[in-house]
Amino acid sequence: MDFAAVLKAEVDRKRKHIEEKQILGESKKYFRRSDLAQREREEYEKVHNIKRIVDEKPSTSTSGEAEDLTTMGPDEDKLPMTLSRQEVIRRLRDRNEPIRLFAESDYEAFQRLRKLEITTPDIDKGLRNDFKAAMDELEQENIDKIIQQTGDGESGGKTEIKLDDGITMDSLQERAKGLGRGNENHDCSLILDTMQFLMKSWANELNEVPPEKKKTVQWKTQSTIHRQTVAYLSPLFKKLKKRTVAQDILEYLCGIIGHTLNRDYVKASAIYLQMAIGNAPWPIGVTMVGIHARTGREKIFSQQIAHVLNDETQRKFIQGLKRIMTVCQRLYPADPSKSLEYNAVKSV
User: Fold this and answer.
1) Which pTM value belongs to this model?
2) Is residue 67's pLDDT more than 60?
3) Could you give the CA distance from residue 171 to residue 261 in angstroms, rounded to a whole number?
4) Which residue in 215, 225, 243, 306 has a CA-CA distance of 20 to 30 Å to 146?
5) What is the crossing angle of helices 85-94 and 106-119, to 10°?
6) Residue among 255, 156, 269, 264 at smallest CA distance from 212
């Protein structure tokens, strides 16, 4: 078979087909594929006597509204300006967009913002640096303190935690005798009071530092870590107040808080590590890696899975719990045999 002859015949057939459709004009050398498809559709409808019905009614769907909003011009009658100029500037800056383009009016900037919110509603901010955000907040509070001070000579900010004055370490140790005995309300209440008491003690330790030391980098770093820990533990505090903590996590917390109140920080750290990283050979919970079942697959359950890998919220409050344990060991020291890294724990 002559391949050149077959190819030439196919090219001639295509050329003849295009000439019959009358797509190319006298001065046109090329044509668009969509024009050919449109011409073939029209001929098909003509042969089969098909009449196309054009619906001129305005669409009420969400997509139609989005098209109207995204294609609207500078006519102010189409959409009233419902946001103030300050709010428009704030939202544009959140999206890393210019607050005003060249020769752009306030309404046109508002219109551009609405178009961005419709076409790209989600803002991808990426991973946030919580430590830097807390440090910036502390610096801003220090600046505000310096501006507003009336000669009292104190330039360091204070970190406060609301807590009942009647709670002491002795009362918490007395209540810890009934910890982990099946009373979920008592356990959640004691864990919450203990963690808030330690956060309050940590804040008092930072506030008692002399004013000249509050200007040092070490104090600012410790204060920033405290603020970051408060933010990390906030979801856990809410769950403890609502009694919605997962049962396996609550059991670990009971063991950690119980040993911490008894000043046995080695055992508390061992339970913390078991909660954070688990002791399963597959920490993320993978049990099926092939067509055959793993040996001992039934031994993998929730107590062996690493909770620090579940989600970002759990990772943060688990990290905050470790900081509280370190603060408790510093404020309420124990024997070296019951302490973790005895010589490494230092005060501010």
Assistant:
1) 0.52
2) no
3) 10
4) 225
5) 40
6) 156
The neighbour count for residue 68, using CB atoms within 10 Å, is 14
Give per-residue pLDDT as tens, 88-142.
998 898 888 999 999 899 889 988 988 888 777 655 555 566 667 777 777 777 6
Angle among Cα 279, 282, 286 to the nearest 5 degrees reads 135
The architecture (CATH level 2) of 130-286+297-338 comes to Up-down Bundle (1.20)
SS3 248: helix
Two tokens, residue 221: 């770093």
CATH of domain 68-119: 4.10.280.110
Q: Which two tokens stand for residue 293?
A: 């079942």
Q: Is 326 exposed, middle or buried (0-12, 13-18, 19+ CB in 10 A)?
A: middle
Domain definitions of the chain by residue range:
68-119, 130-286+297-338
Residue 16 sits at the vertex; the CA angle it makes with 14 and 19, to the nearest 5 degrees, is 110
SS3 209: coil
Owner of token pair 């990283």: 277
